[in-house]
Specification:
By secondary structure, this protein is an alpha+beta fold. The protein has one domain (9-68). The protein is built from two helices and two strands. The protein has helices spanning 9-19, 43-68, and strands spanning 24-31, 34-40. The longest helix is centred in the last third of the chain and has 26 residues, at 43-68.
Length: 70
């Protein structure tokens, strides 16, 4: 969940603490608790996530399209 604990909150805590990050967002596909995500970040970082995800999506599409051209 973007706000509040979700089913993968413990895993997000582990990643955040091990990386000493100010925030983490994990997306789980086919996990033992099903699909889901967890976010742990301050408000400013949380509000920046949609823009970051759009940028990541654009990069994934560009990489895929470039690979198709090979």
């Amino acid at each position: 969940m973007a706000i509040g604990a979700g089913k993968y909150d413990n895993e997000a805590t582990l990643v955040r603490e091990r990386t000493k990050a100010k925030g983490v967002l994990i997306i789980v596909i086919g996990g033992d608790k099903g699909e889901g995500f967890a976010c742990q970040a301050d408000l400013t970082t949380t509000l920046a996530i949609p823009k970051m995800l759009r940028h990541v999506a654009d990069q994934i599409e560009a990489d895929f399209n470039a690979a198709q051209e090979l």
